[in-house]
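Objective 1b of the project was to move from sequence-level analysis to a structural picture of ligand recognition. The entry below was assembled by the postdoctoral researcher (A.K.) and checked by the PI before modelling. It contains the amino acid sequence of the target and the SMILES of the bound compound, adenosine-5'-triphosphate.
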Amino acid sequence: MSLLTLSGLSLTRRGRRVLDAVSLTIGPGECVGLIGPNGAGKTTLMRAALGLLAAEGASSLADSDAAARARTAAWMPQSREIAWPVSVETVIALGRLPHLPRGTRLRGDDRAAIDAAIDRMGLTPLRNRTATRLSGGEQARVLIARALAQDTPFLIADEPIAGLDPASQIATMQVFADLAAEGRSVLVSLHDLGLAARHCTRLLMLRDGGLVADGPPAQVLTPGNVREVFGVTAYYEETRDGPVFQPMEVVR
Ligand SMILES: Nc1ncnc2c1ncn2[C@@H]1O[C@H](COP(=O)(O)OP(=O)(O)OP(=O)(O)O)[C@@H](O)[C@H]1O
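Corresponding predicted holo structure:
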């Protein structure tokens, strides 16, 4: 079974290939980290996969109708602004909209999904706060919870842990890993290669719009790939407590 199949996904902007024939399949139970330097095309890849940007080639999600897509994939974009001064719970409840027949109120299973998302993101103490008055990192956790409340088999999140404190970053990546262990899948872009190595089951490494490597973290984060794509040296060790990856020096 595939949650996302891309074949030859390509996009040209201002005469430059910002996505270059990306082909891949994501199945259930995968926590897939999308890594690559600034401008590599991570956001473009996610948006084109969702059908939010027109692209050449094919994406199974972009090709499905909007209602089916919203029940398959939850999307957490990079922009974090919560615009409305409503409660945290109300923002998270918006994740249930794709499940509600037009004009109906929240039902028991909607309430259960909202409660589970609040619990998972550790937001119980903030539940009744006004969302716009939370810190940036707290708002980010609320938006992740909104995506979780959508209760889809697939979650696509663009740099969801940027700007979170270490505990929230680790806890959020652990939530994604847990979702994968439960048989759902996550596609998450991130710049923290150490967290990518520790929590993802698979990494996609992008450079200049092209997929350079696709596989388990240890096979993707090789010294050669890291040097060539990110221009840094790195320390990598498999420890009893899991992999430890630390970028070290810029290669000149
Ligand atoms: N509207 C646009 N017009 C022209 N070029 C664009 C446009 N949007 C994105 N690009 C270019 O496409 C390339 C890929 O951008 P994208 O945002 O997908 O990269 P990214 O890997 O997500 O980067 P970051 O890590 O900085 O978020 C960049 O070179 C960017 O300048």
